[in-house]
Design brief:
Aspartate Aminotransferase, domain 1; alpha/beta; seven-stranded mixed beta sheet; Aspartate Aminotransferase, domain 2; PLP-dependent transferase; five-stranded mixed beta sheet; binds pyridoxal-5'-phosphate; globular; 2 domains; 40% helix; PyrdxlP-dep_Trfase_small; 12 strands; 14 helices; 401 residues; Cys/Met-Metab_PyrdxlP-dep_enz
């Protein structure tokens, strides 16, 4: 039976539970697994280490190769992403690393085109050359001219971190020609956006963020077709970056509430964003729900809603940003996002610290991740913190005078 997305979020990856005689997800922690005999043990190893699935009568061999709890989460996430398969990693950056290793190795091409802005860690990984990859960073409309004969992959993020710029996935896919496109879908989640339906080859998540949603899991996952998934599992088996089963268990458990969380957080974000636009301390509010932040009209077409992230530029610049982040009481001043509780952080100093100066976000920019609190309480907290920045500025001015 074809399920609507909300039902799928609750039921995906659980089809066999009744037959197992259980109702909740099993958590399997074995690091090693008994082998039927040397021949079948060896064959199982061979199949799993080269990216295949376990076979009837074989063994899962070793937890770096295959874990049933991880595989269950992968199956659920693949269904939510409209993908054939997904592959889970120990973090979002481990997932990105595996994609770069697998695709450059497979194609014997060493060049990547990356559309800025990107999450600072991704930007850093690509710019560092650590993996032997040469990267051309460009704007969305320059992808066609940046692609070369030796381009293995095009990377984009939408909404992009930290300014929430929206990138037209279909347009970049068209510009990339036959080069596969990876979309970092961390901010939108499969509740709002399905990159594979728009022509992307890979949809990547830092599962640490909305998928986890409770600030207690670090993980990454890539949704793609079966052929790419096998290449990613092979890379994962060799380099050892598989997700821990407890993380997979928590992530799978959290998928059931992902659509409800996402919609409620998005509603809260809309209210907070509207309120922020009227504040004199705020020069600019970046929120995909505002026409000014969505010039190409992608909310409602490419992604079904604006999401729950807001970025603001403060009139008082860095000094005001510093006062705001240290004056909030209900928001937590911390990196990361997508949790049930609200977070605030300064991208230029933290998440985007390693980014080259020409691409670094403004010093006046602060990023807000809106949680599930009552928006009235979040607004009250921001009101007192913004007032504190104004008072402190006036005090500083008086002291100088
Ligand atoms: C956090 C983040 C990552 C990196 O994920 P980790 O789980 O921290 O390794 C990648 N992309 C985006 C958009 C992120 O926000």
């Amino acid at each position: 039976m074809t399920l609507h997305p909300d039902s799928l979020a609750v039921h995906a990856g659980r089809d066999d539970l009744a037959a197992l005689g259980v109702h909740a997800l099993p958590l399997e922690l074995s690091s090693t697994n008994p082998l039927p005999d040397i021949e079948l043990g060896g064959l199982s190893y061979e199949v799993l280490a080269t990216g295949g699935h376990p076979f009837e009568g074989g063994s899962n061999v070793y937890a770096r190769l295959w874990n049933p709890t991880v595989a269950r989460f992968e199956e659920a996430l693949a269904r939510l992403e409209h993908a054939e398969e997904s592959v889970a990693f120990s973090s979002g950056m481990a997932a990105m690393t595996a994609v770069l290793l697998a695709l450059t190795h497979e194609s014997q091409r060493r060049h990547v085109v990356a559309v800025r802005p990107l999450y600072g860690g991704t930007d850093h990984l690509l710019a560092s050359g650590l993996l032997g990859v040469e990267t051309t960073f460009c704007a969305p409309d320059a992808v066609a001219s940046a692609v070369r004969d030796d381009t293995a992959l095009v990377v984009l993020e939408t909404p992009a971190n930290p300014t929430l710029e929206l990138v037209d996935i279909r347009a970049v896919v068209a510009a990339a020609g036959d080069v596969p496109v990876l979309v970092d879908n961390t901010f939108a989640t499969p509740v709002l956006q399905h990159p594979l339906d728009l022509g992307a080859a890979l949809s990547l998540h830092s599962a640490t963020k909305y998928l986890g949603g409770h600030g207690d899991v670090v993980g990454g996952v890539v949704a793609c077709d079966a052929r790419l998934a096998a290449a990613l599992r092979r890379t994962r088996a060799i380099t050892g970056a598989i997700m821990h089963p407890l993380a997979a268990y928590l992530l799978h458990r959290g998928l059931a509430t992902l659509p409800v969380r996402m919609r409620a957080q998005q509603e809260g974000a809309r209210i907070v964003a509207d309120w922020l636009t009227a504040r004199p301390e705020v020069a600019r509010v970046h929120f995909p729900g505002f026409a000014a932040s969505d010039p190409d009209g992608l909310v409602g077409t490419q992604q079904s809603g604006p999401g729950a992230m807001i970025a603001i530029e403060l009139t008082g610049g860095f000094a005001a940003a510093s006062l705001l982040t240290s004056s909030v009481e209900l928001f937590t001043h911390a990196v990361s996002l997508g949790s049930v509780d609200s977070l605030i952080q300064h991208p230029a100093a933290l998440t985007h610290r390693p980014v080259a100066s020409e691409a670094k976000p403004s010093d006046a920019l602060v990023r807000l991740s809106i949680g599930l609190e009552d928006p009235a309480d979040l607004i009250a907290d921001l009101a007192q913190a913004l007032t504190a920045t104004a008072d402190a500025r006036e005090n500083a001015e008086t002291a100088l005078a």
